[in-house]
Amino acid sequence: MRHVRSLIIGLACLTVLFGSAMAQQDSDVVGKVTRIEKAAVALQDAIPRPLAIGSGIQLGDIISTGKGARLEFEMNDGSKVQLGERSKFVVLEFIVNNNGGNAVMRMIEGAFAVSSGKLMQLADASMTVKTESATIGIRGTTFWGGMIDGTFEVALLAGKSIYVETKAGRVDIDKIGEGSRIVSANEAPSKPAQWPAGKLERAKATVKFSN
C-alpha cells in the first residue's frame, strides 16, 4: 500500500512538473507556420525540429529554410513573415498588451517580406527587424528585404511607411515601390528611389510560393 501511495505521489509530481513545462513552452509560442514548400527547420537550444503547416514558432527559434524552400508564418497578432530559400530568421521579442507592445525580429541571412498585423494598429507599439547592418522600423505596412544586385536592399511593397537606420543615418520610405540600399552599418542608407518594375518582381520572386 505504501508503494502504491508513493507511486501516486510521484506521478502527481511529474504531472505538475510536466504541466509547468508545457505552460512555459506555450507562453513562448509567438506564431505558427501557415505555408511551406520544401524543407525548413527551427533550431532552439541547439535542438532542430522540422517545420510543417501548423508548427509553432517560439521566441528565440532560428528559423532556417533549405535550398528552393519558401516558408510563411503568422504571428499571434496577424503579422506575417515570408522567407525565401536559405534564409535564417529569429523572433527575439513579441509583446502585445491593451495599449501597444513591441516586436523585435532579426534577419540573419536570405530574403524576407513582412506584413504587419494588429500590433501596429495600436497607439503605443513598435515593430523592428534588425539586420547585420541596419534596423528597419515598420509602420503598418508590407516590405521586402534581401540581397539584390549584389547589395542588401529594402523596398516598400504596400501600406504606410518604413524607416531604415544605420549608425550613420536614417531614411524614411513612404512611397510604394521605393527602395533603399544599405552598404554597411557605418554608411547611411541610400536616398529612397523608385525601383523599376522588373526589379520589384525579382525581389518578390525570392519569397514567392510556386502555388
Description:
- The chain has 211 residues and is α+β, with helices and mostly antiparallel strands.
- 17% of the residues lie in helices and 51% in strands.
- It contains two helices and 16 strands.
- The protein has a 16-stranded mixed β-sheet that branches.
- Strand 6 and strand 7 (80-83) form a beta hairpin.
- The N and C termini lie far apart (62 Å).
- The relative contact order is 0.11.
- The model is unreliable at 1-25 (pLDDT under 50).
Core attributes:
single chain; 211 residues; alpha+beta; Jelly Rolls; 16-stranded mixed β-sheet; 17% helix; 51% strand; globular; disordered N terminus
Shape: globular
Question: What is the count of structural domains?
Answer: 1
Order of helices and strands: HEEEEEEEEEEEEEEEEH
Determine the oligomeric state from the structure.
single chain
Tell me the Rg in angstroms: 20 Å
Q: How many β-strand stretches?
A: 16
What structural class is derived from the secondary structure elements?
A: alpha+beta
Q: Uncertain regions: pLDDT < 50 for 5+ in a row?
A: 1-25
CATH architecture: Sandwich
Mean pLDDT: 88
Level-1 CATH class name: Mainly Beta
CATH topological fold name: Jelly Rolls
Number of helices: 2
Largest sheet: 16 strands, mixed
Summarize the structure.
This protein is α+β, with helices and mostly antiparallel strands and 211 residues long. The chain has a single domain (30-205), classed as Sandwich (Jelly Rolls).
Which SSEs are present, and which pair or pack?
Layout: H1 2-27, E1 29-37, E2 40-44, E3 47-50, E4 56-58, E5 62-65, E6 70-75, E7 80-83, E8 88-96, E9 100-109, E10 112-115, E11 124-130, E12 135-148, E13 151-166, E14 169-173, E15 178-182, E16 193-194, H2 197-205
Parallel strand pairs: 9-11
Antiparallel strand pairs: 1-4, 1-6, 2-3, 2-5, 5-8, 6-7, 7-10, 8-9, 10-12, 11-12, 12-13, 13-14, 13-15, 15-16
